[in-house]
Write a structure and sequence with these properties.
By secondary structure, this protein is α/β, with parallel strands linked by helices. The protein has a single domain, classed as Nitrilase/N-carbamoyl-D-aminoacid amidohydrolase. The chain is built from five helices and 15 strands. Strands 1, 2, 3, 4, 5, 10, 11 and 14 form an eight-stranded mixed beta sheet that branches. Helix 1 runs parallel beside helix 3. The C terminus is likely disordered.
């Protein structure tokens, strides 16, 4: 399976612009034979820790506008994982959609949100892509080993980690290297491959992100790492078939 982690400039309140970038990137991914493409946390509307801003930006899965966007930017064979703020009734979630062939195939809600007003997700779905199974942990979820273990125990061989390390400059410096270490710890703990997709750039408040996108093998070896402070795309070919692992057990799997 060919995977790709996209490190892109952070966009804010620019859904149409984000959709255009996604359409371009996924057309490129299709041409390059990418099976699974990962984009950053809250990439579609832009990340915020402010509840009022997040609620204003949030979209429900049945929103006609969201589905029209997905039909446009995910029309090909490449499966895409895209972070967004999700509205479920009165609840707000920091989520990631799994999209393919112009439709939403599933969603994961962050189990340990740091964003004000976000409700923790409780489900840990696993999807099938070819001969591989994958699941999602969003950013801070990786600090809680049980979250990735839940995916591994359901047979996931790949854990996808959309992140958004747009922080105040001193915190961005502090968390850049530990961000990579967290991916390595997760890989060794679960025996899974791990890939992360981060944003780069700055916002109007002077917050910055170095970019911590990477792909890590089950032994914790970083096989691909994005250039800091710049847009980048990491592409890696996983084995044709997912190896059997000690965590694997019979589980319900969602096909994409």
């Amino acid at each position: 399976m060919r995977i790709a982690a996209f490190q892109r400039l952070a966009l804010f309140d620019a859904v149409e612009q984000a959709a255009e970038v996604l359409a371009r990137d996924l057309a490129w991914a299709e041409a390059e034979g990418i099976d699974l493409a990962l984009f950053p946390e809250c990439y579609l509307q832009g990340h915020s820790y402010n509840e009022a801003i997040a609620r204003r930006r949030a979209l429900s899965l049945d929103d006609p506008g969201l589905n029209a966007l997905v039909a446009r930017f995910a029309s090909g064979k490449t499966t895409a994982i895209i972070g967004f703020f999700e509205k479920r009734g009165d609840a707000l979630h920091n989520s990631a959609i799994v999209a393919k062939s112009g439709r939403i195939a599933g969603v994961y809600a962050k189990a340990h949100p740091l964003e004000s007003g976000c409700t923790p997700g409780r489900d840990f779905p696993v999807w099938q892509e070819g001969h591989w199974r994958f699941g999602i942990n969003i950013c801070a979820d990786l600090r809680y080993p049980y979250a990735s273990a839940r995916l591994a125990k359901q047979g996931a061989g790949l854990i996808c980690n959309p992140i958004n390390l747009m922080l105040r400059p001193h915190k961005a410096e502090k968390w850049h290297r530990p961000g990579i270490s967290g991916l390595q710890i997760c890989a060794k703990h679960t025996g899974c491959w791990v890939m992360a997709s981060d944003v780069v750039g700055s916002n109007e408040d002077g917050w910055v992100s170095y970019g911590t996108s990477a792909i890590v093998d089950p032994n914790g070896v970083v096989v691909a790492k994005a250039k800091p402070h710049s847009e980048d795309v990491l592409v890696f070919d996983l084995p044709d078939r997912q190896p059997e692992r000690r965590f694997a057990q019979k589980a319900a799997v969602v096909a994409t």
